[in-house]
Amino acid sequence: MKISYSWLKQFIQTDKTPQELSLILTDIGLEVESLEKVQAVAGGLEGLVIGYVTDCVQHPNADRLRVTKVDVGGTELLQIVCGAPNVATGQKVVVATVGTIVYPVEGEPFKINKSKIRGEVSEGMICAEDEIGLGVSHAGIMVLPEDVEIGLLAKKYFNLEDDYMFEIGLTPNRADAASHLGVARDIAAYLRAGYQMPDVSAFKTENENLTIDVAVEDQEACPRYSSVTISGVTVKPSPDWLKNKLAVIGIRPINNIVDVTNYVLHELGQPLHAFDADQIAGKKVLVKKYPENTPFVTLDEVERKLGSEDLMIADAEKPLCIAGVFGGKQSGVSESTINIFLESAYFNAVSVRKTSKRHALKTDASFRFERGTDPDMTVLALKRAALLIKEVAGGQISSQVSDIYPVKVMPFHVEVTYANIIKLIGQDIPKEEIRSIIKALGIEVAQESVEGLSLQVPPYKVDVTRECDITEEVLRIYGYNNIHIPTKVNASLAYTQKPNKENLQNLVADMLTANNYIEIWCNSLTKLAYSKNPDEAVQILNPLSSDLNAMRQSLLQPALESVAYNQNRKNADIKFYEFGKTYHLIDGEYVERPRLLLINSGAQQAEQWNQSAKPTNFYHIKAAVDAILSRLGIANFQFEEIANQDFTYGLKYFRGEKVLVTFGSATKNDRKQAGVDKEVFYADFDWALLIDTVRKNKIVNKEVPKFPAVRRDLSLLVDQNITFDQLKGIALKAEKKLVKAVQIFDVYQGDKLPEGKKSYALNFTLQDEEQTLTDKQIDAIMQKIITNLAQAVQAEIR
């Protein structure tokens, strides 16, 4: 939100500099993100003065040029060559003197130098309005009134003053500060000073020649509707002062009527809308809702289909405006408008928010309405705008103010105690200070006791409805920086349930990071199109967009979008991990499931001078999965090959019916949806199940064995369908106590073996923790293993 320093000073008289106010605003909760010096006109008309043309003759060497003598208030006249067709003796003009930098409406700025033009000296430039940024006309030079003082700075003549613009990061709870008035109120509270409201005492009805009846059919969506008519206006460009005010805060001037409504919006925080009264059929305005899919063309010339819950401003025949959001094409103010119907209303915030989201329309008006405006401001803003319109566009106020307000919005009643305020703040603040701040904020003290206060909070403070909200208001004005940091810190021993979830997550995250994995955080909102089980999808009622209309059912799709983003930027070697949740609607209940995702793509090892790049494969993701389970002390699980809608091929590790992890190659369809063209391997852990499994683990401490381990190798010929895991299981069952490990170090398949066969080379680690194994014992164990392998899978020793 942009706020003008000079505009603020219309509300509150202060000698604080913009820099000082910037610090104050940040301290009281209106964070100033930037402070810029701005000029309504580029260059601020520096170096331009008012001159008087004393002489004007034909240029001796050019038919279209004139040689003039110009008095700019100096000791000598300036000779200036001018090509404007309307330059003449006796004119008051704007002169750019030598050394001035001129900022035209179009093109780059340029410096005025003393020069010769077709043989004649020229000591400046007589300016047209587009040459100095004051307009777009280039028909000729600007000719000023005769009574203008010679030598007067153009900056002063055009009332241009340097201003400062505060860029405030307005938080959603501060709807009361979404205007210059709102910001001024906070500054006044901080300084314990008063502020001045705009004077509307001059408002009066001049005739009743243009009365338009108003009826509000939905008083819940529109609790208050105020209006007035103005006849005989002239729609034209706004005067400079109004243009300049809007330009400082980045608002593009349109015409004098629309500019006034924008001015009052940013001044008082009350959105207004001006209708062409002659376009209102039946001289009647209705605030109502239309049937679903009713077509309506808005100001941007887009036909939109109305929802049945969209509140509309209509006449006797047709809709005119989407209430609080956007106007209609047919009823808007144009150059031919003569009579105006001016609206100032208080709309239900939820109604406006839903309509704004439905039509993807974000305007200055909807921004304020959907956060909550001041119901007591409608008539004041209406009168303020009507007086300004009369000032800049002429006309007469041609009706009484219509104010439909059947049920008054009452202040919020809040009870507070000094003890609770001090407890929540954490510092003893004098009661007098608390009362002073509350009153300075415009909150009325209805009753007072020794223990606390009974308060009436004005409706414009839409987020101040509880005792803790009052405490926050007191604290931000008192100053967060004034709260002392305690010199003593108290701590107590706390019992944490084992295992500690945070420590366990950090343990795995540290291990993955040490192995070159990068942690990512993806948005929990994603596309409903990603859902493989739409019946379980948790959909968003008012989505920000079609790409964010459902909660994710899997961590994979958002992560694949991250893969695509990186691969499109030549970062194709991916190793990501994410701890997150998935969301499901099961039997009418919302279910959140903690998950851990690993994802690999591209090269596992980058190309170097002495080695080529090695692409990642299934076994790399399997190694990472096994490492995590090993680090968590999880063993004794079954596995099974899978190929389904989630994996082209892969494995799942499970215990009974509980699946610990599934991992493998992502399907082509999943990759295509996210725009990934390279193979991707991923693992999806049930993190809640892993934590529960770790909780049941028993930790046993053992001494380091005193006696040496022995290794023996076997080369086995087996059927192709036999897996290493089967062989390992048979070997461990053969001698549970002494066989400590079984590893595979070679696999061979080729034409030198019988058809349907393959060769495994295994090593066995044997160890007795109580004595050194003898050759006789070792041979007996190995013979038993060989016999069991032969019986179970018909393994042959090579």
Folded structure, characterized:
The protein is an alpha+beta fold and about 800 residues long. The protein has 19 helices and 43 strands. The strands form 12 sheets. A 7-stranded mixed β-sheet has the order 29-32-33-39-38-37-36, sandwiched between helices. Strands 3, 4, 5, 6, 11 and 12 form a 6-stranded antiparallel β-sheet that branches. A 5-stranded mixed β-sheet has the order 14-17-20-21-22. A hairpin with a 3-residue loop joins β27 (about 445-450) and β28. The radius of gyration is 40 Å and the shape is elongated. It starts with a strand and ends with a strand.
The main sheet orders its strands as 29-32-33-39-38-37-36
Task: Please identify the structural class as seen in this structure.
Answer: alpha+beta
Rg measurement, Å: 40 Å
Number of strands: 43
Helical content, roughly? 25-40%
Quick one: biggest sheet? Answer: 7 strands, mixed
What is the residue-mean pLDDT, rounded to a whole number? Answer: 91
Low-confidence blocks of residues: none
Number of helices: 19
Shape: elongated
- Percent strand equals 25-35%
User: Span between N and C termini?
Assistant: 80 Å
Quickly list its features:
6-stranded antiparallel β-sheet; 798 residues; 7-stranded mixed β-sheet; 43 strands; 19 helices; elongated; alpha+beta
